Amino acid sequence: MNTKASTAKFWISEAPIDIAHLQRELEAAGVGAVVCFEGRVRDHNEGRPVDSLTYQAYGELAEAEGQRILEEARARFAIERVVCLHRVGELAVGEVAVWAGVSAGHRAAAFDACRYVIDEVKARVPIWKREHYRQGASEWLHPDSAGPK
Amino acid sequence: MNTKASTAKFWISEAPIDIAHLQRELEAAGVGAVVCFEGRVRDHNEGRPVDSLTYQAYGELAEAEGQRILEEARARFAIERVVCLHRVGELAVGEVAVWAGVSAGHRAAAFDACRYVIDEVKARVPIWKREHYRQGASEWLHPDSAGPK
Amino acid sequence: MNYRLLYFASLCDAAGRAEEIVASEAADVRALYSELAERHGFTFAPERLRVAVNGAFTDWDHCLADNDEVVFLPPVSGG
Amino acid sequence: MNYRLLYFASLCDAAGRAEEIVASEAADVRALYSELAERHGFTFAPERLRVAVNGAFTDWDHCLADNDEVVFLPPVSGG
Predict the structure, then answer these.
(1) Which of A53, A58, A126 has the alpha carbon at shortest distance from A94?
(2) Chain B partners of C79 at a C-beta cutoff of 8 Å?
């Protein structure tokens, strides 16, 4: 058994996110706090109405970099489990694009680790978003930074 | 319609927390980020094995103070919805004692508001925890501060 | 004057009751706590407690009126 | 030498393909990007890109070997 592999899991998925399944991955003895983050497709970005998004990943490197981020979170914060899943493909407004969850003994570590994971995933994991606008145009987003937090 | 009442809701409840119901309260147009916190009964506290907890609230004031905290969160952070529910009565190890959720356009506000709510609830809302230890004793907790975060 | 007291957590244990009606000459919250601490053996110093009158937080110099509901709140431990 | 290139997002649009095999005399990553930027009209300055060789991040001075898989990564926008 690889303990690390069972307590920090990052996935890229074409299928919709099964949140109940991810939450079960966070169960462990001694858990007093669970913090979850859901990032959803918004109906607008910088004033332009958005109909849908396409996410594209460099899959092999994205999974390796995502896994690296979760291991960093486990090393930095006193947490029990950490999981993160990022969708790829076509997503409609309101769909969950990324989900991250952390369980810990106490809440400070759970909050800090969850925030760390989502900030680093957005900044480092090779995934790109193409926004499809209501007006018919579409555009790959390549922000200078990871954009608004 | 009271807009505030529909976007910031605090409850004290004797019944188990219905998380799916609370999550539906967070839906709103323009939501890009949802952060949820779950506080659960741990199987030990400061080294002593815990079997169960009893939470007691000064109900009337607890609901007013909880609601005040949620309104503060709405005033301080750019969020859409915020809900929080705290259990009272007897809880077993692993049960969810408190649940807080925040939806927002962007993640920084959602994280900060969720953290604010749970920190303030623990520090200010008149609810007390009695721990029942495996050895048979039990004890009301009256920490000098709000305890480990 | 008569005051209605509610007791929670360890103050409830110490008083041996969750509520009581008390006849007292105490004119403010501080004097009332002093009287009840002696009667019930409460060991909390006032600075570790908060106080509520008629369902709202207030301060220790709050002047009491007949039939006020008074609650001394020990340090909370929710969450 | 032959290199296998993968293109993502706007670099894929600019190159008009998701991958290609390129025969090139470029010995390092920087020289290869310069050559491909000219061929495909890539407008990103190198400092806005990251680079990966054979599935791992590396730097712009990385020396290439025959049949390496090289990816220039435009600024990411996941989440």
Answers:
(1) A53
(2) 39, 86, 97-98, 118, 121-122, 127, 146
